[in-house]
Protein backbone atom coordinates (compact mmCIF):
# COMPACT_ATOMS: atom_id res chain seq x y z
CA UNK A 1 0.00 0.00 0.00
CA UNK A 2 1.11 3.58 -0.60
CA UNK A 3 0.10 6.80 1.12
CA UNK A 4 -1.72 9.23 -1.13
CA UNK A 5 -1.40 13.05 -0.72
CA UNK A 6 -4.80 13.20 0.98
CA UNK A 7 -3.77 10.68 3.64
CA UNK A 8 -5.59 7.67 2.17
CA UNK A 9 -3.88 4.48 1.11
CA UNK A 10 -3.97 3.02 -2.36
CA UNK A 11 -2.68 -0.29 -3.72
CA UNK A 12 0.99 0.01 -4.56
CA UNK A 13 1.90 0.45 -8.17
CA UNK A 14 5.21 1.55 -9.49
CA UNK A 15 4.94 5.12 -10.83
CA UNK A 16 5.85 5.00 -14.49
CA UNK A 17 8.86 6.88 -15.74
CA UNK A 18 7.96 9.62 -18.20
CA UNK A 19 10.62 10.78 -20.64
CA UNK A 20 10.68 14.54 -20.15
CA UNK A 21 12.74 16.23 -22.87
CA UNK A 22 12.82 19.32 -20.65
CA UNK A 23 13.02 18.65 -16.93
CA UNK A 24 10.04 20.10 -15.06
CA UNK A 25 10.07 21.26 -11.46
CA UNK A 26 9.38 18.23 -9.27
CA UNK A 27 7.08 19.18 -6.40
CA UNK A 28 7.36 16.88 -3.36
CA UNK A 29 4.10 14.99 -2.75
CA UNK A 30 4.22 15.97 0.94
CA UNK A 31 3.96 19.66 -0.10
CA UNK A 32 0.62 19.12 -1.90
CA UNK A 33 -2.63 18.58 0.03
CA UNK A 34 -6.05 17.93 -1.52
CA UNK A 35 -8.94 20.15 -0.38
CA UNK A 36 -11.58 17.52 -1.13
CA UNK A 37 -11.97 13.75 -1.12
CA UNK A 38 -13.14 13.70 -4.75
CA UNK A 39 -11.87 15.59 -7.83
CA UNK A 40 -13.13 19.13 -8.30
CA UNK A 41 -13.33 18.61 -12.05
CA UNK A 42 -13.23 15.73 -14.50
CA UNK A 43 -12.67 15.33 -18.20
CA UNK A 44 -12.48 12.55 -20.72
CA UNK A 45 -9.17 11.16 -19.46
CA UNK A 46 -8.41 12.93 -16.24
CA UNK A 47 -9.30 14.60 -13.00
CA UNK A 48 -8.54 18.05 -11.61
CA UNK A 49 -7.97 18.45 -7.90
CA UNK A 50 -8.00 21.74 -5.99
CA UNK A 51 -4.99 21.52 -3.69
CA UNK A 52 -2.77 23.66 -1.54
CA UNK A 53 0.96 23.80 -2.16
CA UNK A 54 3.10 24.56 0.86
CA UNK A 55 6.32 26.27 -0.16
CA UNK A 56 9.15 26.77 2.32
CA UNK A 57 12.36 28.73 1.83
CA UNK A 58 15.53 26.61 1.88
CA UNK A 59 16.42 27.74 5.42
CA UNK A 60 12.78 27.23 6.53
CA UNK A 61 12.45 30.81 7.75
CA UNK A 62 9.32 31.47 5.71
CA UNK A 63 6.42 29.35 4.43
CA UNK A 64 3.70 30.17 1.90
CA UNK A 65 0.60 28.32 0.81
CA UNK A 66 -0.98 28.76 -2.57
CA UNK A 67 -3.98 27.18 -4.24
CA UNK A 68 -3.09 24.98 -7.22
CA UNK A 69 -4.81 22.70 -9.70
CA UNK A 70 -3.37 19.20 -9.93
CA UNK A 71 -4.33 17.51 -13.20
CA UNK A 72 -4.00 13.75 -13.20
CA UNK A 73 -4.56 11.21 -15.96
CA UNK A 74 -7.22 8.65 -15.10
CA UNK A 75 -6.13 5.27 -16.43
CA UNK A 76 -8.87 2.61 -16.18
CA UNK A 77 -6.35 -0.23 -15.90
CA UNK A 78 -3.05 0.94 -14.43
CA UNK A 79 -1.67 -2.57 -14.99
CA UNK A 80 -2.05 -2.10 -18.78
CA UNK A 81 1.58 -1.17 -19.46
CA UNK A 82 0.98 -0.14 -23.09
CA UNK A 83 -1.83 2.22 -22.10
CA UNK A 84 0.23 3.73 -19.26
CA UNK A 85 3.20 4.22 -21.61
CA UNK A 86 0.98 5.87 -24.23
CA UNK A 87 -0.43 8.32 -21.68
CA UNK A 88 3.11 8.85 -20.35
CA UNK A 89 4.22 9.98 -23.81
CA UNK A 90 1.27 12.39 -23.96
CA UNK A 91 2.24 13.87 -20.58
CA UNK A 92 5.86 14.15 -21.69
CA UNK A 93 4.82 16.00 -24.86
CA UNK A 94 2.43 18.32 -23.00
CA UNK A 95 5.12 19.24 -20.48
CA UNK A 96 7.65 19.76 -23.30
CA UNK A 97 5.34 22.33 -24.94
CA UNK A 98 3.82 23.90 -21.80
CA UNK A 99 7.07 24.39 -19.88
CA UNK A 100 8.28 27.21 -22.19
CA UNK A 101 4.97 28.94 -22.90
CA UNK A 102 4.85 32.42 -21.44
CA UNK A 103 1.77 34.44 -22.35
CA UNK A 104 -0.90 36.33 -20.40
CA UNK A 105 -3.61 34.05 -21.80
CA UNK A 106 -1.84 30.78 -21.03
CA UNK A 107 -1.97 29.19 -17.61
CA UNK A 108 1.50 28.90 -16.05
CA UNK A 109 2.96 25.41 -15.68
CA UNK A 110 4.37 25.03 -12.15
CA UNK A 111 5.66 21.46 -12.17
CA UNK A 112 4.78 17.80 -11.62
CA UNK A 113 3.87 15.79 -8.54
CA UNK A 114 3.64 12.05 -7.86
CA UNK A 115 0.90 10.34 -5.85
CA UNK A 116 -2.16 11.05 -7.98
CA UNK A 117 -2.03 7.84 -10.01
CA UNK A 118 0.36 5.77 -12.07
CA UNK A 119 1.77 8.83 -13.87
CA UNK A 120 3.03 12.22 -12.69
CA UNK A 121 0.29 14.84 -12.35
CA UNK A 122 0.61 18.36 -13.77
CA UNK A 123 0.44 21.36 -11.43
CA UNK A 124 -0.75 24.85 -12.39
CA UNK A 125 -2.31 27.79 -10.54
CA UNK A 126 -5.93 27.26 -9.47
CA UNK A 127 -8.37 29.35 -11.50
CA UNK A 128 -11.38 30.41 -9.42
CA UNK A 129 -13.53 30.79 -12.56
CA UNK A 130 -12.81 27.22 -13.69
CA UNK A 131 -12.12 26.09 -17.23
CA UNK A 132 -12.84 28.26 -20.26
CA UNK A 133 -15.78 26.01 -21.16
CA UNK A 134 -17.40 26.32 -17.73
CA UNK A 135 -16.73 30.08 -17.64
CA UNK A 136 -18.47 30.59 -20.98
CA UNK A 137 -21.46 28.51 -19.81
CA UNK A 138 -21.86 30.71 -16.72
CA UNK A 139 -21.17 34.17 -18.19
CA UNK A 140 -22.62 36.18 -20.99
CA UNK A 141 -19.96 37.41 -23.37
CA UNK A 142 -20.25 38.87 -26.84
CA UNK A 143 -20.03 36.46 -29.75
CA UNK A 144 -16.79 38.12 -30.84
CA UNK A 145 -15.23 37.70 -27.38
CA UNK A 146 -16.40 34.07 -27.12
CA UNK A 147 -15.01 33.33 -30.58
CA UNK A 148 -11.68 34.96 -29.67
CA UNK A 149 -11.43 32.88 -26.48
CA UNK A 150 -12.40 29.63 -28.20
CA UNK A 151 -10.04 30.27 -31.12
CA UNK A 152 -7.20 30.88 -28.66
CA UNK A 153 -8.12 27.68 -26.80
CA UNK A 154 -8.24 25.65 -30.02
CA UNK A 155 -4.95 27.09 -31.23
CA UNK A 156 -3.20 26.14 -28.00
CA UNK A 157 -4.84 22.71 -28.03
CA UNK A 158 -3.27 22.05 -31.44
CA UNK A 159 0.26 22.94 -30.31
Automatic annotation (TrEMBL):
InterPro entries: Kinase-like_dom_sf, Ser-Thr/Tyr_kinase_cat_dom. GO terms for molecular function: protein kinase activity. Residues 41-143 form the Serine-threonine/tyrosine-protein kinase catalytic domain. It comes from the Eukaryota. This is Serine-threonine/tyrosine-protein kinase catalytic domain-containing protein. It comes from Rhizopogon vesiculosus.
Amino acid sequence: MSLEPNGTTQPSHQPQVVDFKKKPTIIPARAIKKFHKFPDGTGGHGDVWMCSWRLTTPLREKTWKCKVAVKSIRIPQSDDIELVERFGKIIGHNVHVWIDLDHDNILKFLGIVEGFGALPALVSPWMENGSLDSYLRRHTVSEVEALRMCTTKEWFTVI
